[in-house]
Amino acid sequence: MQTQLNYPRIITGLEKRWTILQMWFTVSFFIICKYKSPLKFVKIIKKVINLRNRYTVGNTYNKLAYVDGRVFFNFNNNGWPSKYFNRIIDIEARDAVYQDVTNIENLRMVLIAFTKKCPLNCEHCYEGAELNKKDTLTLDDHKKILKKIQAAGISTIHFGGGDPMAKVNDLIELLESAEKTADFWIFTSGFNLTEANAMKLKKAGLTGVSISLDHHDPEFHNRFRRNKDAYKWVEDAATNALKANLVITLSVCATREFCTEENLYNYLELSKKLGASFVQILEPRAVGNYEGMDVLLSSEQEQIIEHFFVKSNEDEKYKSYPIVLYPGYHQRKSGCPGAGSKYIYIDTDGYMSSCPFCRNKKTHILDDTHEASLQEMKSEGCGKFELLN
Ligand code: SF4
Q: What pLDDT does 316 receive?
């Protein structure tokens, strides 16, 4: 018997409003039960609304993605309902009432480079210089890292690389050993995401997969990924992720060549067919394999993407299409959440950086100097944008 494909449902209109209302109800109930004071409640709600407004400037969350019984805004926040959905609210609440939140507790998301191994060497890879060197972090190290960041309460954890699917058995063991207090995601080219592996990962606790797809045209994608099978991997990985009820994000590095309206809408069309809940558009940066190269988008190209981003999320015509995420838009409008403010990158050797693109290597995550390092990152800020506080 063939396994069924579990396509996501994109929620809009009245149903979306009703869902958001229920979320506010559970959040309010949580705050009242925990803080037991109307004054504190008002103070906390004000802070939460203020933060939401900064995060969502120019984007009113017109759509939500419903997968496997939960609703997702994006893949950097926890799905609702879940036991840990209120974790961010709790951090905001503690900060509003007691101001006792440590730098590590204040992080919303951590991206861990799980391995240097990868079968590809893509045109833009930010880990190009490290690819396929001997891994310095063992599975045991990864267990310690996970334990440390989960002890700090971090509830969104992403695994990148290299390609984490190059060491899938270790990844499964790591997920099995993890506390079930977070949403876990992997960033992959689609390599090795067979049906059996997708099922095992889901069972071990994986929430979703962010699959890199850099063009709707297979030839362009394969050229960019420098492998004739890369596009096929994406198609197969998406099918297998749907079978396993994993949330799918398709992530594109929008190069100058890619940046046309036609390409963006064709890409969205394909993403819907592949069953994606989200499409993430990343801008090329002159790091890794692109180091020293003139790859940044022009402001006209940024505007093409911004226009697409707003239209595809707000226009009735696209209401059943995947939700488009464009971090560059929010970074320009409200600030960057990286640099120890809301998230960090842990590189393939275990050292902390502001993000995969701003590689200001700090201390090792397992050292007990993380608070000072995070503070240093925050003081240095993001090299490109104002920091989101
Ligand atoms: S798949 Fe990812 S890690 Fe591997 S070469 Fe491409 S960009 Fe780099």
A: 92
The atom number, within ligand 1, closest to the CA of 191 reads 1
CA of 122 to the centre of ligand 1 (A): 5
Mean pLDDT to the nearest integer, 32-36: 90
Q: What is the pTM of this model?
A: 0.94
Pocket test for ligand 1, best of 112, 114, 127 (most atoms within 8 A of CB): 127
Give the residue whose CA is nearest to atom 6 of ligand 1.
122
For 349-363, write each residue's pLDDT tens digit: 999 998 888 888 999
Measure the CA–CA gap between 6 and 15, rounded to whole angstroms.
Answer: 20
Task: Give residues with Cβ within 8 angstroms of 48, minimum separation 6.
Answer: 27, 89, 92, 93
Domains of the chain in sequence order: 9-97 (no CATH), 109-380 (3.20.20.70)
Give the C-alpha distances (Å, rounded to integers) separating 287 from 36, 47, 309, 350, 368. 49, 36, 25, 19, 29
Percent of the chain with pLDDT over 70: 96
Mutate to test the pocket of ligand 1, among 111, 116, 122, 255 (most ligand atoms within 8 A of CB): 122
Helix (H) or strand (E) holding 67: strand 64-67
Q: Which atom of ligand 1 is nearest to the CA of 161?
A: 3
pLDDT band at 236 (very low <50, low <70, confident <90, very high): very high
Question: Nearest residue CA, atom 5 of ligand 1?
Answer: 121
- H or E stretch covering 70: strand 70-72
Whether 311 contacts 321, CB under 8 Å: no
The model's pLDDT over 302-339, given as tens digits with 9 standing for 90+, comes to: 999 999 999 999 999 999 999 999 988 888 887 777 67
